[in-house]
Amino acid sequence: METKKIKVMQKILDINDRIASELRNYLEKQGILYLNMMSSPGSGKTSLIEKTANKFKDSIFVIEGDIQNTLDAERLNNLGIGVYQINTGPFGGDCHLEAGWIKTAIEEIDLASVKYLFVENIGNLVCPAEFDIGAHINIVILSVAEGEDKQFKYPLAFRNSQLCIISKTDLLPYLDIDLKMMKDNIKKVNSQIEIIELSTKNGEGLSYWYEYLTQNNNC
Ligand SMILES: Nc1nc2c(ncn2[C@@H]2O[C@H](COP(=O)(O)OP(=O)(O)O)[C@@H](O)[C@H]2O)c(=O)[nH]1
Ligand SMILES: [Mg+2]
Hints:
Blueprint: H1 2-29, E1 33-39, H2 45-56, E2 60-66, H3 71-77, E3 82-87, H4 99-108, E4 116-120, E5 137-143, H5 150-153, H6 155-159, E6 163-167, H7 179-189, E7 194-197, H8 206-216
Parallel strand pairs: 1-4, 1-5, 2-3, 2-4, 5-6, 6-7
Helix pairs in contact: 1-4
Bound molecules: guanosine-5'-diphosphate (GDP) and magnesium ion.
């Protein structure tokens, strides 16, 4: 019985990986940079997309993943950018997005003017890292309030990401956190990962983020 279950799970992952690979190639051919944002709830994914939308307004589209509700999609919609909501609640409440669901979304979206396609994955550091959605850049966001050790507790999210954003740096003066240790620990889990420190509240570091996006949008 157990063996059968493992085989079925392997098949689901194989199908997911094939679709992910197709998405990666398709969006590259369209000249669209495809970014997957992963973090625990409240680390600042939507806030960063909001800031980015103000800068790159007409060229951004966001696919929002949530178990329930459309709160984040409404926040982004208010800024006048295109948003597509995926709710997993009605289908069992999965805590991650899968490549097939993104493919279905993309088939319904007009991508003609889009240069940056963001996926805000469902808020947790576990499941989203297990499912490749074909993004060109996986981004893990860790706020300074989360501590120096989360990369060791949830290593896959850091191993499978090309960029780590350390968010909410405006809070550093109020926290007992060793930022250098936090960064060293991230590099211990993934020595290749790039790190950008920023705050959407006071704006520090945002210029590096915008530059990162512009530099990488050559696919
Ligand atoms: N102090 C501070 N708060 C932030 C920052 N970015 C986001 N927040 C706050 O953190 C909370 C969660 O942010 P949100 O973007 O919704 O996180 P998400 O759940 O990852 O999408 C909100 O109350 C934001 O105002 C930041 O850079 N500094
Ligand atoms: Mg959010």
